[in-house]
Amino acid sequence: MNDKCPLISVVIPTYNRSSLIGASLESVFSQDYPNLEVIVVDDGSTDDTQKVIEGLKNPKIRYFRHEQNRGAPAARNTGLKQATGEYIAFLDSDDAWVPGKLSKQMEVMLRSTEDVALVYGGMRKIDDEGNTTGYKKPQKRGNIYQSLLKDNIIGSTSIPLLRTKVVKAVGGFDEELRSRQDYDLWLRIAKLYKVDFVPEPLVLYRVHRNRISGNVEAQIQGARRVLDKYFEDIQRNPAALANHYYLLGWLYNKKGDKSAAHEYFKKSLKSFFRIKTLYRYYKTFS
User: Fold this and answer.
1) Residue range 18-71, pLDDT digits in tens
2) What's the predicted TM-score (pTM) here?
3) Is 3 a domain residue?
4) Which of 161, 203, 233, 271 is 20 to 30 A from 263 via CA?
């Protein structure tokens, strides 16, 4: 690929991740795709994130700052408004991209028809020491909306390459969501457009306790809001409805609210019977 390749806007929201954002940025500038703009949105950090960014002295970085912490969806939307690229990719500041990530996705995108709006790929989960703890593999391409209703098969915000005009047309990220913002956006896109994938890991997803996925209250709020937003479509698919109820049961059980967990596991069983749900349901009696 050469400098005439379409511009990709890379948006990195960050909040108090001064110890991690350097590695994320390094993974961006190590990409072999030649035409990038990098937009860092500091969501009101109180650590030395700004000093770290300024210390890099990289003219390709455009730095924006929220004076108050507004949450990752708002930070991503700020980056989206500033993006000038035909394509856009988001990278959470505690994740990193593998070499060649963007060029492989762009190859798929450029040979696709205009109705393909998103190209995703695999993900490798790592711990703080860089040890692999799991994989997420791409599964579906084309019209995946019904499959996506069952589960977030695309994965985290750091994975896809997207058409910028499509992300803007569907309204960007829902700033009312405290979690599952990526899943919500993928659903809105997949309802209207096709997707494709690169069949290999493209992202190193760092699992640590400060991720939003470790905040049970935020997870519950996100899971309930997504279920409410797409209930009309989800309820038509008993297996999908069972999955959403099961997730809420699991989250409430994790929170220690066995009464709420019991009710959601019961709803899940009524929607679609699974042995694992029955097991969880009876565990709420103990």
Assistant:
1) 998 999 999 999 999 999 999 999 999 999 999 999 999 999 899 999 999 999
2) 0.94
3) no
4) 233
Which residues fall within 8 angstroms of residue 86, CB to CB, at 6 or more apart?
6, 7, 8, 163, 164, 165
Token duo for residue 84? 């000038």
Residue 1 covered by a domain: no
Residues 110 and 40 in one domain: yes
The parent domain of residue 239 ranges over 213-283
- Which ranges constitute the DSSP H helices of the chain? 21-29, 49-56, 72-82, 101-110, 145-150, 164-169, 181-190, 216-229, 231-234, 238-255, 258-271, 275-283
**In a shared domain, residues 272 and 135:** no
CB 148 within 8 A of CB 161: no
We report the CATH number of the domain holding residue 40 as 3.90.550.10
- The pLDDT value recorded for residue 1 is 57
Are 249 and 167 contained in the same domain? no
Residue type, 121: G
Structure tokens at 147: 């499959």
The residues that bridge with 136 in the sheet, in sequence order, are: 123
Residue 112 lies in a domain: yes
The residue with tokens 């394509």 is 87
Cβ pair 81, 41 in contact under 8 A = no
* pLDDT tens column, 137-157: 998 999 999 999 999 999 999
Same domain, residue pair 161 and 75: yes
Pairwise CA distance, residues 233 & 146, whole Å: 9
Residue 236 structure tokens: 């038509």
